[in-house]
């Protein structure tokens, strides 16, 4: 009996504690109820999505009050109260003070808050203030008027974001109150104090979003063009879905009172945020409850051209070109000023007749702080409007969807980035001479080098020539047919003068018993065959965009699948490179090299036909958050060894000594069994006999993979390929891209990052988390990392040869310790020029290599 009663009492007690416990997970803090760190106090929003409490970030011991996603097991803090003033021990409290504000302080030390909402309220109402964590994750401080019970919002955390904004939160400004909600990065992952990067909306001119490093503009997107913020782009051309997911539920609001962006949660089973990371990247992260994982859909800035004013004023930056910077039409590079200067003399505006506009396609619009919006003008009206004012330098559509309204720029044009597709057109104002030159340039390609005076002569001569051409036309027509054939023959002779290659005009091969000549058999395809195979180069068949032109998938009448590389006529690849690639690839046979089936030449058209690789290229896998998990460690190791064997073959096992010069992830294709195949020999060089090193004036290759001696002195050897291989290897292991060596761009300098971690014995942090999960043999991976570090040493002579690399990768022999890679290629001036209206006289030498200086650290 007694025990039964005791049992009953215990149950009562349990029930009592149960209710007490659940009472503690309320969503409000009142005058009488506060939370303290010592008792693990917290408040949770009524829907259970957000939690407010005390936390220690990363490896820090300090305590902060913050808000995080309650249903994401990996604590992701999205808001911090006392970010600049941490609690040093666990005696903190978060409560409403006598003046009605909510504050953080050491328990019993109410008079000296570390942080406070700090609003002044009428004394009478302040007694009844309460703080509530709303389902949206907004912490709201309200006061109640005792006489009529109306509530007033005194303060809300949504108005004071830290480094993140999330669904339902306005990021931007309220012109009525002067409130500007800006993001400020954390100092580091362990310290939420205000870092050096901020992101804010700037409403001068036409609203745009700016990232600042300190007080210097660092990165910019905008203005809003009816569809997107100009310059917001997908991560890679293949990752077409990413940007759609990342920005599907965004809206941009711009009215008289407010300018802000806001987004909705993509679906009920996700939590997402936009965050400004400590090293200055904006990232869109989405947590999927069902997969229990963060995915990253957008990261910016993405490359050197995203850096505000990278090339200086009046330039066009195109990251896909080796030399990214070029002067805008109507400007030329001045060696004295080290910048682009206007060709025409000052003050001639409006005097000369026939001014007009040149279209720049696929660009991120220039900095719009000097821009005006004409919301009701068509593009034609805008052109007239722009011509009216001497200061107007260009215009663009303000709404690419509706086609109504335009932006007009006044003054110097800054920060224009050009892409190879998408984005929008910008019309730049030029004088009559430039306009004529542009017209001629368009008609006859490769005319750039001609002097301006020559252009004028050409214009007048052209008129006379028309008559002549007219007369000649009839005669020419008569001979056209036979000339066409002759031309074809000429190309062939030029191409294969020194090769013993046999061509067959049809798909049928010349049967020969001799094995050697059979290997080198190439097919010469008709243009008609290729057009039919690729559905007339339809967009649907496009596989990607290489440096020299688009690549299409095709199917020959016999069912064989092919990849057709169509060399764009204005690509850098002239007949020389074409000849190179055909000749080289035809002679090479190795399981880790892509196989060339044939080529097609028809007047302007030059095309290469390869075997089709169903699995695209390596970058398609390793830099994609979802696809990278398909490549486990075993697979990656096989790929690394395969690439090494392929390069070794090029360097010494083939009859020729070949240096690839442009090894990078997008040039490594994967066959149906994910075997790597090296492609794109267009830039390769053959070495005669024993020659081991050479110099070149035109540095070709890709930033991030170029060895220092090649990037700076144009000196290349087998060791520059070894360097590129080293970078490739580290990218494969880390799943991260090495963007280049910009010392102000630390987040993307993979080499320095790997070296740092390796040196601090934190090697395992280098490894891509998606291969870490399946418990890969760490020592084997570390061995590979060490080989990679050996390959990227500064001095070419220190780097191993490819044969040693292959040996080291497949044997357990002892490896020498790598020497620290110390070089850092940086801009020729400091990044700290404070503002946009950068006159450009400090910018890197435009039209010359952007890599200008070698600096030892
Ligand atoms: C608070 O949480 C910590 C860690 O979870 C635990 O060790 C401690 O006992 C808790 N303290 C109280 C008062 O609940
Ligand atoms: C916690 O730190 C504060 C400030 O340094 C100090 O005043 C207080 O005595 C400390 N409390 C304990 C329990 O250590
Ligand atoms: C509160 O505001 C006053 C005046 O605006 C300022 O002097 C004070 O430093 C602020 N206090 C805190 C804790 O932010
Ligand atoms: C409270 O409400 C009453 C009645 O609406 C109003 O007269 C009074 O000014 C209010 N007090 C405050 C502090 O807003
Ligand atoms: C505070 O709230 C209580 C209950 O809502 C109310 O009775 C009281 O008048 C309020 N006090 C003040 C100063 O507004
Ligand atoms: C978000 O965007 C996706 C894709 O366009 C759409 O299916 C979904 O309905 C949107 N969600 C909301 C809440 O608007
Ligand atoms: C803008 O254009 C619309 C449609 O063409 C027209 O109805 C309206 O009056 C115009 N507004 C102004 C301010 O010109
Ligand atoms: C053009 O520039 C001049 C001098 O810089 C300035 O005085 C004038 O107001 C500008 N005009 C317009 C329309 O911006």
Description:
The protein has 17 helices and 49 strands. It is of the alpha+beta class and 857 residues long. The protein folds into 5 domains: 141 residues, Agglutinin, subunit A, CATH 2.90.10; 142 residues, no CATH class; 99 residues; 129 residues, Phosphorylase Kinase, domain 1 (2-Layer Sandwich); 221 residues, Transferase(Phosphotransferase) domain 1 (Transferase(Phosphotransferase), domain 1). The strands form 13 sheets. An 8-stranded mixed beta sheet has the order 26-25-33-29-34-31-32-30. Strands 35-36-40-41-39-38-37 form a 7-stranded mixed beta sheet, sandwiched between helices. It is globular, with a radius of gyration of 32 Å. The relative contact order is 0.07. Bound molecules: 2-acetamido-2-deoxy-beta-D-glucopyranose (8 copies). One 2-acetamido-2-deoxy-beta-D-glucopyranose (NAG) binds next to loops.
């Amino acid at each position: 009996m007694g025990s039964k009663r005791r049992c009953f009492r215990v149950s009562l007690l349990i029930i009592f504690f149960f209710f007490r416990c659940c009472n503690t997970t309320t969503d409000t803090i009142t005058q009488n109820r506060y939370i303290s760190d010592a008792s693990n106090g917290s408040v949770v929003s009524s829907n259970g999505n957000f939690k407010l409490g005390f936390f220690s970030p990363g490896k820090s011991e300090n305590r902060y009050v913050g808000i995080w996603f309650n249903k994401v097991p990996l604590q992701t803090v999205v808001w911090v109260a006392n970010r600049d003033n941490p609690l040093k021990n666990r005696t903190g409290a978060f409560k409403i003070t006598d003046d009605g504000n909510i504050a953080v302080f050491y328990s019993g030390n109410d008079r000296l808050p570390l942080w406070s909402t700090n609003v002044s309220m009428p004394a009478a109402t302040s007694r009844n203030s309460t703080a509530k964590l709303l389902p949206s994750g907004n912490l709201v401080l309200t006061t109640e008027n005792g006489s009529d019970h109306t509530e007033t919002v005194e303060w809300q955390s949504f108005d004071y974001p830290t480094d993140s904004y999330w669904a339902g939160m306005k990021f931007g400004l309220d012109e009525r109150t002067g409130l500007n909600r800006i993001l400020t990065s954390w100092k580091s992952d362990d310290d939420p104090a205000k870092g050096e990067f901020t992101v804010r909306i700037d409403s001068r001119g036409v609203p745009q979003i700016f990232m600042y490093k300190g007080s210097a503009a660092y990165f910019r997107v905008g203005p809003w063009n009816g569809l997107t913020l100009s310059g917001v782009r997908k991560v890679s051309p293949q990752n077409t879905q990413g940007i759609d997911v990342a920005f599907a539920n965004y809206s941009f609001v711009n009215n008289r009172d407010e300018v802000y962006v806001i987004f909705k949660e993509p679906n009920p089973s996700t939590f997402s945020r936009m965050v400004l990371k400590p090293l200055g990247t904006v990232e869109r992260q989405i947590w999927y409850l069902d997969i229990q994982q963060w995915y990253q859909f957008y990261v910016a800035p993405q490359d050197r051209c995203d850096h505000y004013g990278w090339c200086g004023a009046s330039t066009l930056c195109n990251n896909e070109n080796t030399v990214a910077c070029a002067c805008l039409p109507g400007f030329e590079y001045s060696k004295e000023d080290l910048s682009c200067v206007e060709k025409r003399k000052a003050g001639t505006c409006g005097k000369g007749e026939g001014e007009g506009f040149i279209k720049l396609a696929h660009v991120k619009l220039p900095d719009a702080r000097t821009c005006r919006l004409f919301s009701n003008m068509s593009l034609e009206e805008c052109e007239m409007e722009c011509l009216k004012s001497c200061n107007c330098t260009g215009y663009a559509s303000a709404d690419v969807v509706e086609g109504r309204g335009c932006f007009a720029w006044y003054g110097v044009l800054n920060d224009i980035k050009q892409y190879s597709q998408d984005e929008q057109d910008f019309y730049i104002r030029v004088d009559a001479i430039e306009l004529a030159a542009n017209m001629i340039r368009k008609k006859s390609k490769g005319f750039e080098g001609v002097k301006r005076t020559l252009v004028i002569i050409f214009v007048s001569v052209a008129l006379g020539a028309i008559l002549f051409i007219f007369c000649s036309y009839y005669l020419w027509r008569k001979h056209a047919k036979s000339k066409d054939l002759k031309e074809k023959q000429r190309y062939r002779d030029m191409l294969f003068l020194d090769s013993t290659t046999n061509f067959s005009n049809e798909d049928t091969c010349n049967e020969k018993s001799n094995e050697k000549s059979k290997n080198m058999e190439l097919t010469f395809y008709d243009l008609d065959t290729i057009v039919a195979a690729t559905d007339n180069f339809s967009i649907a068949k496009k596989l990607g965009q290489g440096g020299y032109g688009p690549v299409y998938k095709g199917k020959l009448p016999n069912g064989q699948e092919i990849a057709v590389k169509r060399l764009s006529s204005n690509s850098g690849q002239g007949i020389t490179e074409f000849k190179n690639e055909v000749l080289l690839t035809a002679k090479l046979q190795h399981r880790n090299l892509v196989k060339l089936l044939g080529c097609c030449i028809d007047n302007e058209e030059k095309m290469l036909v390869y075997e089709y690789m169903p699995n695209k290229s390596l970058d398609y896998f390793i830099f994609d958050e979802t696809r990278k998990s398909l490549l486990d460690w075993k697979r990656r190791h096989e790929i690394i060894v395969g690439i090494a064997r392929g390069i070794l073959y090029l360097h010494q096992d083939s009859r020729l000594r070949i240096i690839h010069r442009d090894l990078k992830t997008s040039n490594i294709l994967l066959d149906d069994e994910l075997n790597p195949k090296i492609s794109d020999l267009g830039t390769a060089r053959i070495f005669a006999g024993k020659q081991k090193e050479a110099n070149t004036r035109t540095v070709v290759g890709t930033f991030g993979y170029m060895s220092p001696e090649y990037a700076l002195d144009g000196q290349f050897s087998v060791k520059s390929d070894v360097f590129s291989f080293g970078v490739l290897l580290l990218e494969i292991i880390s799943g991260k891209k090495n963007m280049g060596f910009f010392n102000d761009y630390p987040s993307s300098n993979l080499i320095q990052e790997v070296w740092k971690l390796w040196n601090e014995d934190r090697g395992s942090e280098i490894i891509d988390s998606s291969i870490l999960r399946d418990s890969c043999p760490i020592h084997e991976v570390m061995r590979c990392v060490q080989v990679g570090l050996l390959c990227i040493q500064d001095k070419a002579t220190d780097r191993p040869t490819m044969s040693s690399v292959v040996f080291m990768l497949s044997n357990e022999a002892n490896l020498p310790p790598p020497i620290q890679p110390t070089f850092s290629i940086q801009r020729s001036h400091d990044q700290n020029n404070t503002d946009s209206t950068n006159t450009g006289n400090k910018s890197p030498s435009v039209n010359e290599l952007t890599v200008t200086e070698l600096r030892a650290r």
